[in-house]
Each structure stands twice: as structure tokens, then as C-alpha cells.
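Re: the pair you flagged

First of the two:
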Amino acid sequence: MVDRRINVEAIAGAVVAGLQAVQQQQSATPSGNPSTAISSANTPRNSPMLPSQFVRGKSKARAAAGNESKKKKDAIQSYERDIICIPHDYPHKGGVFNFPRGKARIELGKQGLIGKVCLQSWMSEDDIRAEIYSCFKKPFFEDLHFPFKYLQSAGAGAKSLIVPAVGDNFQWSAKQVAQMGGSRAVYIWAQKALMLEETEQEVSNEEKDDWLDEDDSELPFVGEARTALSAQNRIEAGNDSPCCSKSLGTKSQQNYRQYCQLIDLTRSDSDSDEAPEQTIQRTTSIPVLSNHEMERILQQHFSRVVTKEAVQRINVRRSYLLQDATRQFSRPSFDVSKLLKVCFIGESAVDDGGPRREFFRLLLHELFSASDLFAGYPESTLPQHNVMAIAQSQFCMAGKIIAASIVQGGPAPACFSPAAADMLVHNEVRSNVQLTDIVDAEVQIKMQRISNATSTDELQSILRSDDFDFRFDCGFSKPTASIKFEDIPLFMHTVWMHYTVYRVHGELQQLRNGLLGTLHLEHLCETHPNLLWSLLVANKKCLTAASLQELFLVCYSTQGSNDRMAEEAIMMNFYDYLQDCEDNPEDTGVTLDDIMIFTTGVAHVPPLGFDKALQIQFMGDERLPQASTCSLSLKFPRNRTGYNTFKEKLTLAILGSVGFGNV
């Protein structure tokens, strides 16, 4: 007991001495951290280190690390949120939306309108929008600038969404966007219609039956969700040009192998006698849409893929139209999804629709008649075999021009043979054999001789001539002695397929890639294949005096006035003039198409239709009639003249109006 007390007292004395030494050191150091003044040199060698010294240093390190992590946390904040895009046509009441739940939310998910975003505090509003755009590439066809508005909850516990009212210069931050819905998802309201397949249309059973071939294999029809361009029937183009980089199908060798199997006559003994007839008669009736229905569908497509607010200007010369247009379309900065504004060099005209329509009319005319890309007849045009043009992607450029004309208000080609239109739309032939589809006139004559043969002996006698050695190039390799009269349908089909499809297969595929790869025509082809087919195939309806008269709305003066009487006399002369142009265009020197071109810039009503009605207006005592292709108006001077004088002046105005502002 005595020894323990002595030890305790010794320890207590040492502690007191140590505390006194610390107090003395603190008084000697007026500023700074007291703990730094304590060192092993100032501490008695035999004195234990005070607990406060060690704990104080450790707590400071922890505090410093905490401050550092807090700074990092304050520097970059991340917000992961679900994002839901409300379609433009989503039902609402005065800008108040119900939260999409249940079936409505499931439907949005099917349309690809639900996703996830990661917003960070350093993001600007443009960065935030870019992150949101990346979630909805598919429903908006990779439109990275589609307009939208943010939606926020109407209040705490509310079950509706509203558009927040913000100033014109307000800039959203990542934190504000993320917290707009609290812990819920971020909601936006698209200000642009979606590019979704129109699966809600119903098709009757008769229409479905029309899309079945003789092998009972079902083909796609309008309104069906399945694509019309199935992967197994698509054929890849034979080039890797940027314009045609989008693949549209499988290897062409597979299709050619099927073709060889079809025409291989070495196994004809085992084939049934009905096979040739089935091969020849394989065709599909295409449901015909009314002009009004075509216009409605194309106008919807135009509003989805063309931005009216943005303008793409094109400068061309009439004498070098195809050359200048090709150079403009080939520019890297050229954007065909913007509204095209055409300027004819040397002419005074502001494009409000008229110059654009005339530009595409003249451009398609040069493309099909003046270039070396196409051949054939006006009602059965085919691509011309041209390896150099394929290497330079000229057919792809031609397809791009055709697509732009159809969607941007120009005329449709309406000149391809049914077989070519089948390949461009369906990627397979569904039409009957037409000898007029064969471009080579000599081959046509020879095939007509085959068609007129009446017996096997006569057929074999014709084929023994050296003039028919071309059949071997077509793949008809059956020996002449084995060919029978019953083989004529298959022989004609083989030659027809060679000259209309397989001989120009690469040209057709490159043309198809350029056509369907521009302005989302592939989507239109999938949803409405019969519409695109009708625009490509030769099916022009000739204008008549009566049909042209119905297009015009006459702006008369007040009934009973002197001007009204003069205007009625002018209209009587005009209607007589229309009838003369229909009955005897050689006498007038003017056709009904010329009158239509003089007024609108195109010879026929374009697939997109006109944005306003054609008008006939009256003006003062001018010398000649005038026309405005932009306002779609034909203006007559209010002069009392006889028919012959009226006819002479109108003919002079139409034939002398080559170019805008030139009469």
C-alpha cells in the first residue's frame, strides 16, 4: 500500500510539472497554433505525450479532408432522372396535362418517348437540351433540334402538369430542370409531330387479298406495322459512296442466285407445265389512292421532315440547270430538309413557291431526257447501264433529286416502267411482262417474232439464227432442240427480267438508296408503298379544257358593273382558247400544259398540291396578260377585244415568258 501511494504521487507530480511547462510555453508564444510550439525538444524526455496533442492533430486532418470533399461536391452535382416526352398532340385542357399513367405511359414507352438523362451542374442550357435530344433520336428521326417546352407539377400533391411561365431571357440550369418534378421524372412537351408508323388505319379483307401472291406468301399492305422492305428481300447497292452509305438489304448475290434458279432450264424435265404460266402471271394489284388522299399524306410528311423556318438557297442558271443543281446538292453544307428557295441567275423573282416548282420541273426534264443516266420511252423509263455513273454515285444523286422534288412541292417523275417502280419501292418485280419496257429496240423486234411463233418448229427455226445468241447472255441456256412452244412465256420472261432488272441491277439499287435515303422516304415507302409506286410509274392524266377550267377561281367585279361585263367577255374568250388548245394545239402553238406552266410553274398539279387556289384576276389596260407562279394567278387586261386579238396576245405572253420577269 505504501509503495502504490508513492507511485501515484510521483505520477501526479509529473503531470502537474508537465502542465506548468505547457502554460509557460503558451505564454511565450503569443500567436500561431499552440500545438506547433510543443515539440519533442520542449517536452521532458521522460514525460509521456499528452493525449490532447495527438487527438488535436488527427481531428484537423479529418476536417481538412471533409472540407476538400465538400468543395468537390459543390463543384459538380449530378442528377439522374427519368425523362418523359409528351407528344405534340397529347390531349390537354388549356395547357394542363394529366400525368401519364397506366396505358398512357405504356404507349409512350412503345413510342420510345421514355428515357433516362444524367444532368450535371456544369451544363449550360444548350448542353441540357443536347442530352435530352440524345434520348429521342428514334421517334424524331435524329432531329437534334426539335422544339419542346418543359413541364412542371401544378403544385404539391397535384396530379397535373403545366408549362412554367418564364421570361424571354431565362436560362434553365441543370438543378432547376432536375428539381422541376421533385423526385419524379422530368417532363417535356414536344412542339413537333412524331415520325411514327400509321398503324391505326384499317384495311379491308379484299385489300389484304390483293397483296397475296400465288404462293400464298403475304405481302405488306397499307396500315400494317411490319415493314414493306423486309431484310431478306433488300439488296445492297454496289458502291460505298457517302450518299448511298445507308444499307437497304442483303447481298445481291442471293437475289441473283434466285434468278438463276428461276431460269435454269437444265432441270426443266422435272418442272411442272404450269410453272411458266405462274412465273409470267405473277403480279399484284396496287390499291390506288385518290389525289386528295395523296396530298393529305404528303402534306403530313412534309410538315414532319421539312423545316419551313429554315431556308436553303439554291442559285442556278437555266442554261446549266442540271450541272448547277448537282453541284449545289453535293455541297457538305447543303441541307435538303430546309425549305428550298431557288434563284435563277439573271432573273428578278423572289421564290414563294413558283420558282421552286419550275426548278424541279426543268431539273427532272433534264435528268430524264438530257443526261445519260436514263433511257427508254416516256411511259417506260429505265436506268441506263452506266458503270462510270455508278462509280461517281450519279444515280444516288438522281434519287436524292427525285425525293426532294416529291416532298418539296415539285412534280413526280411519273415515267418509270412498272418493273422499275416495283424494284424501287418493293425491291422485287410484281408486274407483268411488257415488251415496251425493253429499251433496246432490236431486242423488242426479236422478242415480237418469238411471241408471234405458232409452233415448236417455227420457234426453233427462229432461235437457230445468230440474231438470238443474246439469249445466252440473258441466262436462257436450254439447247435449241429442247425448246418447245410451251417455253415461250418463260423465254420472254427471262429476257424481259434481264433487260429491265438484272442488267441494270446496280443502277436501280443505287437509285433506290438515294431515293429512300432522302427526307425519310423510306418511312413513307414502308407505311404507304402504293403511294410512292403511283408517283414513280407512268400514269399521267392528260389535262383537258374542262379540268383546267375547274382549277381556276375567277375574281369578278360587282355584278351589274361595266367592269363585270368586260370581265365576262374576257372569260368567254379564255374558255374558247382552252378548247382550241385541246382540239388543235398546232393551230394555237400552245398546249394546255403550257398554260398550266405559265400560271403555276408545273405542267400538272404536283403530288403535294398547291397551297392556294388558282385565280384569274383582272387589271388595267395592260398590253399583255401576266401570270404569277407564286400567287398562282393569271391576270388579264380589262380590254374589250375580239377573240382573235385575245388569242394572239395570250399566245405571245405564254411563248415569250421564258424566265421570270421576261415577257
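Second of the two:
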Amino acid sequence: GINAEYMGTQATSLFPEVLAGLFIRCSTFAPYQTMIAASRISRCRAPVAPRRAFSTNGQKGSAHTGTKKLWGGRFLRDTDAAILGWTEAITIDSHLAVEDIWGSIAHNVMLGKQGVIPANNAGAIINTLVELQDRLMKGEWKIGALQEDVHMDVEATVIERLGMDVGGRMHASRSRNDQVIVDSKMYCRRRLLELREKVIEAAQAFVDRSDSELENVMVSYTHVQHAQPISVAYWLSHYAAVLLRDLDRLKRAYDVTDENPLGSGAIAGTSFPIDRNLTTKLLGFQKVHDHGLDATSSRDFMLESLSSAATLYTTYSRLAEEFILWTSYEFRTLTLDDGFAMGSSMMPQKKNPGALELLRGRSGRMNGLMIAAYTMMKGLPSGYNRDFHEDKEIMVEGLSLAIRASEIIPALVKSTRINHARMAELPDFSFSTATELANYLVAKHAIPFRQAHHIVGSLVGELSRAGKDFRDRDTCMKHLEKNNIKAPRADVEAVLDPKSVMMSYNSIGGTGPKAVKAMLDQYRERLNKFRSDLKADQQRVSSAFEISRAIAREGQSVKSAADMAKLVEKHLK
């Protein structure tokens, strides 16, 4: 499912990502696939390119400075070498490089259409930008190291190619403050689209596996002690129910993220006649983030995304713990497929649930990233602060971890063997039908529940002390008679049989086959709705990406603002 456009000769450099399980498999999102892959290429490429020298010498309005930074006009010396490694953002920005160029294309299309900069200059800029984006996605262009972040490096490259009088206009009416947040939101949006798709697949795996397990009985647990008999389908489908709520959270996080901050400037907007609605369309956002101060200083989209991801990961960690316990010799209710197990370097007999232990163990990292994000935010005043550099580090790692975890769930669910015989025998050993015996006394013999609870509890205590269980029906009948209860033996047999009890619990949300089947039908409907919403979001983003690139490719033909307006109208119609 890899888009051939970026593969080419990059197969060798991408191989480490194959091993890491990070290849994109989203065939329904093909037009945007190239962009997704590009950010991953940047992590596999060689180190950043040699430093690119930049000078304003000879340009109109230039002044001598002691720094090669594009913002260096008021400085007499360059950044101290001692802090270069501390302040550089190129490494993490490589994940957002394609988004950054996309944002600059949309911005300069708008500048040319609005007459903020000469339209022919805007056309040349966007044409150069799409060429850089193409080369980036093919692995032919590497981000330089002189400028401290991807924003400045892309701009320096455009100026280097087009000259200051043309390339130097591309940042008009924009600040890195709104540029970095638009990059971060587009990156977060893209990763949330991936994550939502993976979670849908995970939930679907639980629903599908449940279909054949409606009448297979097992024991449930509370306090890690045997509780009541349930169906295997009931246990499996409860994970689907949890994941559906995770999908709700992820969709809400996506909608919060999917607002366009571009045009907010440094903090207060701009006096230029910009068109934020146009850039919103060109970048595939649902709407404008309409308060400049809020847009540049808020990172709640990241907090909500990481919180949703951490909540999701907590579900995976609990799942891992349950599978680890249940595949042990003491439980023996599940058997991991060999493909999900690991051996011992010393003990030949071992079959260890190593992959699941990693799934459980990495929950600490996921929660730590979420806490790091909240801690970073808690002391910041309004407006942009350089602390926000950290949000990219946290967001990239957190969302990547959640996606990688989600990728293994469907195969785990499909391949794990359920040991039905072992599951069916456990409820008989553990008084799991005690509640139903008490219910029977309430329903058929008009005994108050608290009294029925005491009668059954004393029976359990008597049998337990004798090393017996409910399979000793004679003792059960004698105990009921001792409490002046004349119950037909057939009735008692029915309420003490785990499978019969399980099959009878058909209240809404119950474990009976009818109740579980009704829930599974609802879950399928909800999953279809999630798929429909996901497809709409994917198509809006993918279409905007292609439209922006198509406009940029025709940028050289633009001579006037009217030409740019016609070009925009042609592709946005």
C-alpha cells in the first residue's frame, strides 16, 4: 500500500522504518499518503545538509549584521555555539517539513491573490515551494542546519533560489508563531487520522471475533476473583465498547485540532488584507481559529489529543495484562500465537508474551508524555513562548507510540487461541452461579434478597470448608430444605448450571446471546459511522493537499492578482 511516488530509490533508506512497523497501510488515504511517508523519510535520511550561508549584502534595504539568521537584523553576533545544540529545532521539525511547505504554499497563494505581494512573485514562490516539497518527499532535498528550524530554512532556500526581492516576500503578514502552530496542527491532524483508522480496525477485530463466541461460557472476574458466568463474546465485545468511546474522544480531539490558526500573525493579526478563509480551504481545515492571541498561545488541541491517546493506551495496557495472565499455566484460558511470543536465551521451554509486556510497559511512557505536556503548559503566560518547542517533541512521540500500539491489536485478537474447554470448566469450581441461586429464591420463593444472599452465602461457606462446590447438588438441596425452601431439583440444577445462567441474562447490556448480539449490531453501526466520518476528514485533507500543489505547479503562469484568483477558482470549484 505504499505510494510509489516517494518509494523509488528510497527503499533502502526506508528499511529501518519497515522494521519499526511504521509503514503506512492506509490505502483509502492514498493521495495524502505521499505526505505521510515523507515525514518518515526525514527520520531515516542522513544527517542534515551542510550549513547554508545566507547574506543580505547587495540587497535593497540590507544592513550589515553579525549573524546569518534571517531574523538577525537587531543582533551584533551570531547564536553562541554553546547553545546551538540546545536550541535547534531542525531534528524534530523534520517530521513536520512537508506540512510546513504546504502551509507556505497556501499562505503565498493567498498573498498573491490579495495583492499583499506582487502576484508574479507569489507565483514564483509557490512554484519553488512545490518543487522543494517534491524533492523532500523523494529524499532528494535535506533540511539545512544554519537556520535553527524548518521555517527559516525553507525561507532561506527560497531566497537563495529566487533572490531577496522575490523570495524575501514570502513571510509577509506571517510570524513563526502562527506558522509553527499551523504546522503542528496539520501534523497532529494527520496522525490523528492514522490513529482513528487503526482504532477502528482494532474495534472491528473484537466485534468480528465475538460473533462466533455468543454461546461459549467463561467466568468473569471482579477483584481478580471469580464473579459470574459470562459468554466469551461478552468479554471480547467489552473491549470494542471501550474502543468506541476512544474513537469518540479521538474525533473530538481531531475537531479541536482542525481549526486554522494561520493569519494570526505573531499575536494580534495583521493590517494586511489577508483572506484566512482561503487558507483554511487550501489547508483542508474545517474552520478558522478566529482569535489570534488564543490561536498562537493555545496548545489544548495537543493536550486533548495526548489525553485521548493516553486513555486509549491505558485500555491497551489493561488488555495486555489480561492476556499475559490468561496465557499463564495457572489460567490456561488463552494461548498466544507463536508470532506474538518470544523465547528465552537459557530456558528452552519458555514462550514469553514479550510483545504484550512491551505494550503494558510502554504505558508509563505514554502517560509520562501526557503529563509532560500538561506540565509544560501550566505556568505559561498568554502569547507564544519558546517552551512550545517541546510540544512537538511530545506530540510526535506520543501519537507515534499510540499508532504503533494500535497496529498490533487486530492481529493479536485474530490469532490468539481461546481455550474453550478450560474456560467452560472454571465456572463450576468457583460458585460463579451463586448470584443466580439468590435471584431464584427472590423470584420463585418470595424471599427478600438480603435474606436470600445470606442463605446462599452460608451454603457457599459450608461447601468451601468441606472442599466442595456447587457440583455437590445433594448438599445444595439439603441446605435449601434446612432453610424451609422446597425447590424442585430441576430448578436448582438450572440455576446452578453456568451456561444456562449465562444464556438467560438478556437484559440490555447483559451477557446473554440476544443481548450481546444486539450490542454487536449497534457497534457495527457506530463503526460504520466512524468510518464515514474518517473518510470525509481524510478526503477533505487529501483534496486540499492536492489542490494546493496543483495551484503551485501552475504558479509560473501567474502575472497578476486576477490570474491568481482565476487559478484558485479553477482548482477550488
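The longest helix spans residues 513-553.

-B.
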